Amino acid sequence: MKTVFAAAGLAALALAAQPAGAQMAGMDDHAGHAGHGATSAAVAPVGAVGVVRAIDAKAGKLTLAHEAIPALKWPPMTMAFKVADPALLNGLTVGKKVRFKLQGQTIVGLTVL
Ligand SMILES: [Cu+2]
Asked: pTM of this prediction?
């Protein structure tokens, strides 16, 4: 069984690499961020911490004042992220501190601290 899981993991990584690369071509969500443009797309999720500034459940977006993210060479800033699943926004309120996982510029995991 271990072999099967390892193979599945590799396949998932290979799949994840493609959309991340495609996103880099667009960059429209981050056009206002001078600090982010040249960063290489992160294939593996990157963890970070931030404070909720705005929640747009309809658009599936979350604005966070995030701390610096050294793995992405991002300085601290306030910005809007897409969420992979609107359910991630459940229970959030402005002012809450959260730990989140980013895949590219999409939040794929989130925990209230
Ligand atoms: Cu940012």
From this structure: 0.64
